[in-house]
Specification:
About 45% of the residues lie in helices and about 15% in strands. By secondary structure, it is of the alpha+beta class. Strands 1-3-2 form a 3-stranded mixed β-sheet, covered by helices on one side. Helix 1 (about 25-40) crosses helix 2 (about 65-89).
Length: about 90
């Protein structure tokens, strides 16, 4: 997971993007993984500062993970990148 902020996005709502490569699986598996990641991150959107862009890169293990496992693994990573952004500001 990576985060970035630019002056041109200051004050705008946060954006979250997902990278799910073919290493994760076929198109059906990749799309299911993206849907699960979107749903998992949606519950955390209120905690993301404005103007922040977050990119989530799915590892191949994400294909076999349950929704609960994905949610639990995303939370600490998201909080880590947010803290790093807040320290740098």
């Amino acid at each position: 997971m990576h985060a970035n902020v630019t002056d041109s996005r200051a004050g705008f709502p946060p954006r979250v993007g997902f990278v799910v490569s073919k290493a994760v699986g076929n198109a059906v598996v990749r799309n299911r993984t993206k849907r699960r990641l979107r749903a998992a991150i949606a519950t955390e959107l209120t905690g993301i500062p404005t103007g922040l862009d977050v990119v989530v890169r799915a590892q191949p293990a994400a294909a076999s993970a349950t929704f609960a496992e994905l949610s639990e693994s995303l939370k600490p990573l998201l909080h880590k990148v947010i803290r790093r952004f807040e320290v740098a500001s």
